[in-house]
Description:
Layout: E1 29-32, E2 35-38, E3 40-46, H1 54-70, E4 74-80, H2 86-96, E5 101-106, H3 108-117, E6 119-120, E7 123-124, E8 137-142, H4 148-152, H5 159-168, E9 171-180, E10 186-189, E11 192-196, H6 197-205, H7 214-224, E12 230-236, E13 241-253, E14 275-281, H8 285-297, E15 306-311, E16 313-318, E17 326-329, E18 332-336, E19 339-351
Parallel strand pairs: 3-4, 3-5, 5-8
Antiparallel strand pairs: 1-2, 6-7, 9-10, 9-19, 11-13, 11-17, 12-13, 12-16, 13-14, 14-15, 16-19, 17-18
Helix pairs in contact: 1-5, 2-3, 6-7
Bound molecules: adenosine-5'-triphosphate (ATP).
Adenosine-5'-triphosphate binds next to helix 3.
Amino acid sequence: MGVRVPMVKPWVVKAEKPMAPDLSPDGSILRCGSSFSRRRDLVFVVNPQGANGRTINEWKKLLPYLRSRLGTDYNICESLTSGPSHAIDITREAIWEGADAVIAVGGDGTLHEVVNGFFWAGEGVTNRDREATHSTALGLIPLGTGSDFARSFNWRNDPHEAIERIVRGQRTCIDVGVISGETKEFHYFVNVADIHLSAKAGYYASRYKKLGNLCYVIGALQAFIGHHNQDLRIKVNGGEWEECSQVTALCIGNGKYFGGGMKITPNAEPRGGNFEVVILQDFKWYDFILKLHKLYRGTHLSVKNVSSLRVQSVEVEDISGGASIYVQSDGEHLGFLPRRFCIIPSAIEMIC
Ligand SMILES: Nc1ncnc2c1ncn2[C@@H]1O[C@H](COP(=O)(O)OP(=O)(O)OP(=O)(O)O)[C@@H](O)[C@H]1O
């Protein structure tokens, strides 16, 4: 049998200092300390445009430290995204090739794309090598504008803390939400999906990311212009359709925070097996001014016209039958109602 030549991994776009090949002559086995173990690939998916360019600057400073901290045990594979959705393809390829972990470096948008890369045609993506015993974990170095998902774990936007989590290598199973609509396509989210005013605000906020967290305030103000609360119909856990009058926003939380730190679904827990759905009804613009502090603290559930439900699935329709009610997932514009949101418990292993 000839010596196996290590494959060139298609997702390794750039490796400033390629690691010396460390495969044993008979294949991919490396002696580490006293035991045999496979040298593992960590694929870092970096959005150079994240946080208005701050992500790439921080990443460049971080890379030498990352190599010194992890380079002995892992192949550090750096992959810069070339545009929207590229992170999805990089992730799928890395999982097919058997990476130990795919780590999103950027904000919630990058994390969202990496999570979507864990799925393909309605199924979880798996290693091409059917004999492989390990699964690919999701990791996160939060370096975005909002980085809201990280807040549910009380993680700060501190890359060194994130690297320590990767060094520890502890994994936990997290739930993922799947969204379906009129087409057969599935879309996945890990943090919060939301409907109507907040989704419209997110749509506008994305145009002002250059202004940092201020983008959310400007987005909200712009969304208020011409906003009307809408009567919606919802179906919870496959039950009966129920009317939900004058909805201002309906938020489906797997994580707790959105919009740059607003604790909108305070009881959501990414490892809980349920979504928390929070519905704001009949809110006027001044309600937001009066109740904003409660929304940020997550103490708004006792406020009039706010309700909270624990669900595994929820379908939402616009009663008027129009297709103009905005939907976003993890801060990314997704389209318009109708949509179905369903939880997949313990869908992904995450480095925590
Ligand atoms: N090379 C690229 N050029 C332009 N846009 C990109 C590129 N790579 C990724 N993107 C897009 O950038 C968007 C935002 O990225 P990301 O979430 O990392 O940063 P952010 O918006 O600053 O942070 P947050 O989402 O936490 O507020 C994503 O929707 C992604 O599709």
